[in-house]
Prior knowledge:
Elements: E1 8-14, H1 26-35, E2 40-46, H2 51-60, E3 64-68, E4 77-78, H3 84-91, E5 95-96, H4 98-106, E6 113-116, E7 133-136, H5 141-144, H6 152-170, E8 174-176, H7 179-187, E9 220-224, H8 230-244, E10 255-259, H9 265-272, E11 277-280, H10 285-289, E12 294-296, H11 305-313, E13 319-322, H12 323-326, E14 337-340, H13 343-355, H14 357-396
Parallel strand pairs: 1-2, 1-6, 2-3, 6-7, 7-8, 9-10, 9-12, 10-11, 12-13, 13-14
Antiparallel strand pairs: 4-5
Amino acid sequence: MEASGRPQVLYLTAADRLTDTAGLSRETRLVVGVLARDMDLSLGIAGPIDHQSLQTLRDHFASLRAAGGFPASSADQPVDRALRRLAIERLGSEIVNARLQAAIQRRSNTFDAVVIDELVAFPYLPVGLRCPTYYLAHRCEARAATVRWWQWLQRRQQRRLRQGEKAALRSVGGVYAKPDIAGQLLEQGLSLRQLNPSFGRFRPEIALGAAVDWGDTQRRVGYVGYLGDDRNLASLEWLLREVWSPAQRTLADIELHLVGAAPPSPLRELAAANNNVYLHSGDRQQLELMGCRAVIEPLLFEQHVDTKLVNAMSHGLPVVSTQTGMLRAHADIGEGVLAAGGPEQMSVLVHQLMTDRELWQLHANAARHTAALQLADFEVAHDLRRAILKGQEEGVS
């Protein structure tokens, strides 16, 4: 492990040619964003990707190396025939790039873990690895490649793909997937013990809430988080000092409810200085029980911005944050979050959500829709993150 003390992780993926987005798929960007907060990632990208896209990835994600897009050479070899058709569909070529293989192999002894999230990236797995290897399955490739019953040639190719996928997954230490994908992989013969522990359930604290009706809410804004965390505390102190206290005229009849454990004395004193700020010990269900109309997340200092925003949106309520926080987000948030450029704009946004039913409904719908699309992906990504960190701790001890 390098001097930074952070796990060194090789992440093998493929360029996204199936959508109009340049570089990586939405799912891959999400996972990389989660892991990059705690780990140094070396990204090996199979398939066509240009220098500009690689540099954008390096600029966008913290602690990230990225390699890919190497020119062809005489040392290139065709991919195993089980993956040939899939490689042509995904990458536009059946050739395994020898220069990318060599670049990855040269650093293979520096990695603490390897993550693969595309079947066509398996040929770039270094030989002689002595660290854990995980596969994050965005899809079951054998199930996705359906064919007509009379296309006997494609049926034979599909059988090879199924066998190749099964062999690849059996070669790794663990497979991480959303519940529906996990079920498909089990049907293809994957062992249950290889799957991530929570593949069949989500923790209740991050479950998608039921749709909320305006009539069930009051002029209340809620925040949920661990109130003893230094970063959370710094953001909340900013909220109270710079937004809530100065804007008493705008926010006079609006209540702010801070929910979480271990509030320190400075936060209790700040809350007590405002007549409409309340501290509660509880969990995310408190916001629903209190009839909060919006969720607030300043996110000026926290890590895992994307996860916090998606968890906030999962309440099915409009979410108010800061542009500073949003700049550190990697997920596609859309209209699920209203981002304020400063304290005055934040107080205005909160007031508008309390009084404008049409605006409230627009952003409540957007928040719930966005959370529904991304919540499961984030849960799997954090499952993987916890496994890598746990493996690192056990290795050090």
